[in-house]
Write a structure and sequence with these properties.
The structure is a single chain. The chain has 190 residues and is mainly α. The protein has one domain. It has helices spanning 4-19, 51-63, 85-109, 128-144, 148-161, 164-189; strands at residues 21-27, 31-33, 42-47. Strands 1-3-2 form a three-stranded mixed beta sheet. A hairpin with an 8-residue loop joins strand 2 (31-33) and strand 3 (42-47). The chain is globular. The chain starts with a helix and ends with a helix.
Length: 190
């Protein structure tokens, strides 16, 4: 089992000094809190001791630009479980890139990833289109490059968890999937 303390140490070792951001376990709800005063650290709080929660919250931080990192929770709205179909679609638009990064981080650490629609109360919802968008975004990130902080963390995870060979295979397969998807789109368009 993966210990979140290891992830916290790894993240903080990489980012406290150069990004003034720390990862903190044990929150009832995940949240990003920007520093208020000079000398304070920005904080990424993740749910209890859940490794996947930490990776997900980190993924949002890796995508957020400078201005968003000055806002609580990067200025995003969060509608809890029980979203309407329209709210769910809005949620999915902003979750494609974070979940794609979370998948990459999970592969770099050698843990299983599952796309999440984060809405248990929506009946008979087909999440396959969202899953495909996340899948394609993984391929785009791997082809075009990761955001700088995401690249640094990915390398740290691969090294810490000894996943160099497995991660290389993950990358190869995801890029092949992306290319196959693009060929399907081209053939449908013709």
């Amino acid at each position: 089992m993966y210990e979140v303390d290891e992830l916290v140490r790894l993240f903080n070792g990489l980012f406290v000094g150069n990004c003034r951001t720390e990862l903190v376990a044990g929150s009832e709800e995940p949240v990003y809190l920007p520093a208020v005063n000079a000398g304070e650290l920005h904080r990424i709080l993740f749910t209890r001791d859940y490794f996947s929660s930490a990776l997900h919250e980190i993924s949002h931080w890796c995508i957020a630009g400078h201005d968003r990192r000055q806002l609580v929770d990067f200025g995003y709205w969060y509608e809890p479980d029980g979203r309407t179909l329209q709210q769910q679609q809005g949620f999915e638009v902003v979750e494609v890139k974070p979940q794609a990064l979370e998948w990459i981080f999970s592969a770099a650490a050698g843990i299983k990833f599952r796309v999440s629609v984060d809405n248990l109360n929506i009946n008979e919802y087909d999440s396959s289109a969202f899953t495909e968008k996340v899948d394609q975004q993984v391929g785009l990130f791997l082809t075009n490059g990761l955001p700088d902080r995401a690249q640094l963390l990915t390398q740290g995870l691969i090294e810490h968890y000894g996943q160099k060979k497995a991660f290389a295979e993950f990358c190869r397969l995801m890029v092949l999937q992306k290319e196959a998807f693009e060929k399907r789109i081209v053939s449908v368009a013709q």
